[in-house]
Amino acid sequence: MSGEIRSSLTKLKSLRNLDLSSNSFMGIPIAEFFHSLKKLQYLNLENSDLGGKIPSILGNISSLLNLGLSRNELNGTLPFNLENLSKLSTLDVSSNHLTGSLPSIIGQLSELSVLDVSFNHLYGIVSESHFSKLTKLETLRFSSSSLILKVGSNWIPPFQVQVLEMSSCHVGPPFPAWLQTQNELGFLDLSNASISGLIPNWFWDISSDITWLNFSFNQLRGPIPYPLRLSPIPYPLRLSFPESIDWSSNLFEGPLPLPNPGIKALSLSNNQFSGPIPESIDKLGENFTFLSLASNQLTGEIPPSIGELQGLKIIDLSKNNLSGSIPSSIGRCYQLNVLDLQTNNLSGVIPESLGQLLFLETLYLSNNMISGEIPLSLQNLLSLETLDLGSNKMTGYIPSWIGRDLKFLRILSLRSNAFTGEIPTTLADLKHLQVLDLAEILHETHMQNRNNLLYHEIFPGYYYQGNLFVSIKGQSLEYTKTLYLLTCIDLSGNYLQGELSLGITKLVGLVVLNLSRNHISGQIPQSISELHQLASLDLSSNMLSGSIPPSCRIPFVGHLTTFEASCFADNPNLCGAPLDVECPGDNSTNAGTKEKVSSRSCNDDNKWFYLAIGLGFATNILVPSLILATKKSWSDAYFGFAEKVADRLTPWACKTRWV
C-alpha cells in the first residue's frame, strides 16, 4: 500500500493490533493520531518507507505492548517521554537514521524484554542507569552505532539476556567482566567492540551454551582452548541463527582450535594460528558449511579428511604456508561454491576431481607452485564465475573450452605461467567477462608468429544495469547507465604481433588496457577516444609508430587529463606529447611540451578503479552464499575477495596524471 494513512482509523475504538508493515508509504511521517487508539497494544510499522521523526505523542499510548518501527527512513532523536509506556515489552527502532543519545528513561521500562536500537547513528554514553529496571530483558541489540558502554567493573546487570549484540560499539578495552553473570546467553556478538587482551578463563565456562559467537575485529590475543564447545541450538533461536564462531581479525595464536560437532560456520582468519590443520577436521560433520582459516601461519598439508565435509559451501585457506598437493578428496565437497587456496606453497597438479564441483562459482589457486596443464575436467564447472590460476608453474596450451564452456566467467587470470601456443580466440565469446588478465603467460620460444585475439572484432556486447559509486579526484560519481561488462584487459609480456585492432576501441566499458611488452606494430587508432571510461593505458615496449592521438594526450574533460610518457615509452617510432619526440609538422613551440598538471602517481588515484572491479564481481559471485544470509561482518570479511583482485592487478597499473 501507499499514500496517506487516514485518520478514520481512530473510529476503531476497540483496535488492539495494527499491522501496516512491509508497505510503501513513500516517506510520509508517522501519523500522530495513533495516540487516539486508547486500547492499542501492538503497533507494527516496520519496513514501510516511513520518514520524518518519531512523534513524541506515541509515548502517550499507555496500553502499548509492542512498538515496531524498524527498517524505515526515520530520523531525529528517540523521544524522551517513554515513561508512560510502562507495559511496553518490545521496542524495535533498528535500521533507521536516528541520531543523538539513548534516553536513560528506557531503563525505567520494567516490562521490556526486547530492546533493539541497532543500525542507527546513535552516540554517547550508555551507563548502568539505562538498565536499572530492565529485569525482564532477553534481547539487547546496540550494533552499528557509536554508543560507549561505561559501567563499573563490579556491575551486575539486573537482566539475563539470551541475545546480546554490541557490534561496533565501544565496549572495551577490558574484556567485559559483567558477562560472567549472564548464564542464558545463546547469541553473543561483540565484534569490532574495541576489546583487547586475554579472554578470561571464566568465559569458557559459559561459552558452552552459546550458539553464535562473534569476537571478530578486536585485539584479543593468546591461545584458545581445544575443543571449542557450542551447545545444540535451542528453539526459537534455531530458526534464525546457525551455530557459528567468528573470531577473525584478532591476535589469537597457538594451534588451530576446532569446535565440537554441530557447528555450521567457523572463521578464524586473520590471526596468528600456527601448525597443521587437524586431521580430525572431518568430525565437524556433514552440516558444516563455512570454513575460513585464511591469513594465518598454518603449515603442513591440507588433510584429505576435509573431503568428508560434504556440506561445505565455502573453503578459504588462502595466505598461509600450506604445502603439498591439493587433495583430490576436495572433489567430494559437492556443494562447494568457493574454493580459495591462493598464496600458499602448494605444488603438484590440479586434481581432476575438482571437475566434480558442479556448483563451484569461484576458484582461486594463484600464487602457488602448481604445475601441469589445466585439467579437462574443469570444463564441467558451468557455474564458474572466477578462475584465477595466476603466478604458478603451469604449462601446456590454454584450452579453447574456457571460452566455449565457461559461459559465466567474469574474472579470468592466468598470468605469470609458462603456457605455450596461442591465446584462443574463443575467449572473445565470454560475454560476462569483466577482467581478463593474461600477462606473461607465453614463452617466447614457443610463440606462434601471430595471435588472432587482437584481430577478433569485438567481445560480444553484453551489459548489466546497476548503480556504482566511484570516487574520482575527490568526488563521488554515480554510474547509472548500462555498462559493458568487460572493464579490464591485460595481455602484457606475451610477444604478441600485428597491429592494434579497431575492434578493441568498441569496448566502451574498458577501464584498464595493458598491452605492454609485446611486438605490436602500426599506429594507435584515433578511435581510442571512444573509450570514455579508460583510466589506465599501457602501450609501452612495443613497435608502435606514428603520432600519439590527441585523445591520448587530453582525454575527455571530467575523466582524465594526460597519460604519462611511461605509458608510451620504448616505442622507437612513436612521437608526440607526452613523449619528448616531435612529430613531423608539429609546432616547434609546443612539441614535447608537457601540460602543467600534477604528476601525482596513480598508485593512489587509481585505487578507485580496483575497488570498482572488486565491487563488480563480489556483488555478483557470492550473493547466494551462506554469508549474506547470516551476518554483515562475515560478508565484509569474505567479500574481501575484491581486495585480492586489486592486489594482483596493482603491479601493472600504468600511471596517469590528474588535474
UniProtKB/TrEMBL annotation:
- Keyword Flavoprotein assigned: no
Q: State where it is primarily located.
A: membrane
Instruction: Decide whether keyword Transmembrane is in the record.
Output: yes
Q: Where is the Disease resistance R13L4/SHOC-2-like LRR domain?
A: 8-189
Instruction: Describe its membrane topology.
Output: Single-pass type I membrane protein
Report the InterPro entries cross-referenced here: Leu-rich_rpt, Leu-rich_rpt_typical-subtyp, LRR_dom_sf, LRR_R13L4/SHOC2-like, RLP23-like
Q: Which UniProt keywords apply?
A: Cell membrane, Glycoprotein, Leucine-rich repeat, Membrane, Receptor, Repeat, Signal, Transmembrane, Transmembrane helix
A GO CC annotation given for this chain = plasma membrane
Which residue windows are transmembrane per the record? 608-629
Gene3D superfamilies, sorted: Ribonuclease Inhibitor
- Top-level taxon of origin: Eukaryota
> Any idea where this protein resides?
Cell membrane
Query: What Pfam family is a match for this entry?
Result: LRR_1
Under the heading PANTHER family, the entry gives: LRR RECEPTOR-LIKE KINASE, LRR RECEPTOR-LIKE SERINE_THREONINE-PROTEIN KINASE GSO1
Entry similarity comment: Belongs to the RLP family.
Record-given protein name: Disease resistance R13L4/SHOC-2-like LRR domain-containing protein
